[in-house]
Design brief:
This protein is an alpha/beta fold. Helices cover about 50% and strands about 15% of the residues. The protein has twelve helices and twelve strands.
Amino acid sequence: MDTTGDAHSASIMIVDDDGIFRNMLQKCLDRLHFHVIPARNGQEALELLRNFQPDIILLDVLMADMDGFETCRRLKANHDTRDIPVIFVTALTDVVDKVQGFETGAADYITKPIQIDEVVARITAHLATRKQQQTLHEHIAERDQAIMELNAFSHTVAHDLKNPLSHVAVVSKYLQDEWRTMSPTDVDEFMTTVSYTSSKACRIIDELLLLASLRHDEIEFHVLTMDEILDEVLRILAHMTAESHAEIIRPSGWPRALGYGPWVEEVWANYISNAVKYGGHPPVIELGADRESYGAIRFWVRDNGRGLTREEQAKLFMPFTRLEQVRVKGYGLGLSIVRRIVEKLGGHVGIESEPGEGTLFYFTLPAAVDETCEYWADLGEGGL
C-alpha cells in the first residue's frame, strides 16, 4: 500500500494469540485511521499474507505452536514478505530475547504493557524508513535500466552511424581524387548521394537527442493540426517516397486530438518511412484515423507489404531491437522511440498484420474535448 500520504492510511497486521490485547490494540489503531488486519497466531498470519501484504507487522513473541521468532524467520525467508518491517510486541525484556528477535530479522521491539503513543511513533518511523528504502530501490532500478538501455543504445547508434558516415567518407574521397575527370552530371549524382547519406546520419543524431528529451522534457498539450504535421513529414520523406514511387493516400479530414506536434511528427515519420521501405512494389500507403471509446483517437498507417508473423510483431516495439528478416536500413531506434513518445502523450502503440496481407501500425492520442463530446453524442443518438 502506498504510504506517501498520511502514515495513518497504512495497513498494519497485528499477530497475537491474546484476544483481549489484540482487540484493544486494534481499536486504538482503528481510531487513528490505520487499516488493521488481525491474526490469532503465526500460522494464520502466514496464510493471510499469501493474499495481502501490510505495510508493517506487529508480532507477539510468546504464542503457542509457532512463536514469534519462528514466524519472523519464515517471513524473512519468503521473497514476498521479507521486506515488511516486523516489530515485536512482547513482555520479554531480557537482552538475550531482544538479540534473538533482531537476529531473526525484526526491525524493532516494543515491550508490554504498551503505550499507544509509543506504538504509533515507532510505526510512523518505520513506515517512513520503508518509504525511503522503496524510493531508493526504485531509483536504483531506474538507474540500472538506464545503464542497460544506454549500453544497447550506444551500440545501436555506433553501428548505424558507421554505415552512412563510411559512405560519405568513401564518396568524398573519390570526388576529391576524380572530380576533374568526371562529367557535371556524375558530380551532381555523387553530391546528391553525399547529401542524402549525411541527412540520414543527422536523423540518427536527431533520434538520440529526441530520446534524451523524452526522459526529462515536460511538454504542453495542444490541439494538433494533423494535416500540417503530415505535410511536413512528407516533405522530409519526399526523396524516399519519390525514389520508391510510393503512393500516399490521405483522408480528407482528421479528428481533433491532443498532443505535442514535434513528437507526433516523429511518430508519423517513423511509421510512414517503414511503410515505404517494407511496402509493396511500388508501396501503396494509406493513412487514417478512427474514434475509439473513452475519448481516444487511433491514428494508423497501412502498407501493402508482405506482412509480419506474430514472432516478428512481438519484437517490433522492444527497446533497440531489429528484425533480422526485415532489417531496418539506417537505424533501429524508431519504433522503440515511437512507443516512448506515445506513452508519454497518454496513448499506446500497436500493430495488426498477417503474412501476405500487409501491415497496419497505429498509435492512440487523447481526443480533444469537442471530439469526446461528439463521440458520446453519437452514442446517445444511437439509443443506448
